[in-house]
Amino acid sequence: MAQMEEITEGVNKINIADSPKKNRIQVSNTKKPLFFYVNLSKRYLQQNDEVELSALGMAISTVVSIAEILKNNGFAVEKKITTSTVEIKDDSRGRPVQKAKIEIVLGKTANFDELMAAAAQESAENGNGED
């Protein structure tokens, strides 16, 4: 459970204002654990009412998992899914390669704030809050 606290702490330190598009999260399947992105998505939803999850290639399954976790737990509803193919310059091969891309836009549910408050309350009662 200590790892979850570290992830949440890491998410809370991120300054969303630094991002070029304030509600977009570009997901990598190698850089951060799944629940880092789940918690970051919740934070974006709190501030923007919607979040756009974006990924290329092998990270697509990670984006789908994040969206499903948020939907299944009542935090988000699916608004839009876009798939495309983008050309990425591959230095090792010396030529461009085609990569699959997905973008999923999620909106927060009517009871999002209620669920977030309940989760915060539960965290505080379990002694996971900051002392």
What is the fold's blueprint, element by element?
Blueprint: H1 2-13, E1 24-26, H2 34-48, E2 50-56, H3 60-72, E3 76-90, E4 95-108, H4 112-125
Parallel strand pairs: 1-2
Antiparallel strand pairs: 2-4, 3-4
How would you characterize this protein structure?
GO terms for molecular function: RNA binding. This is DNA/RNA-binding protein Alba-like domain-containing protein. One of its GO terms (cellular component) is nucleus. The protein has 4 helices and 4 strands. It is α+β, with helices and mostly antiparallel strands and 131 residues long. It has a 4-stranded mixed β-sheet. A hairpin with a 4-residue loop joins strand 3 and strand 4. Helix 2 (34-48) packs across helix 3. The chain is elongated. Mean pLDDT is 84; it is low at 13-19.
| Poorly predicted parts | 13-19
CATH superfamily: Alba-like domain
Mean pLDDT: 84
**Helix/strand-derived class?**
alpha+beta
Which characteristics define this entry?
alpha+beta; DNA/RNA-bd_Alba-like; elongated; 131 residues; UCP030333_Alba; Translation Initiation Factor IF3; Alba-like_dom_sf; single chain
Give a short summary of the structure.
The chain is of the alpha+beta class and 131 residues long.
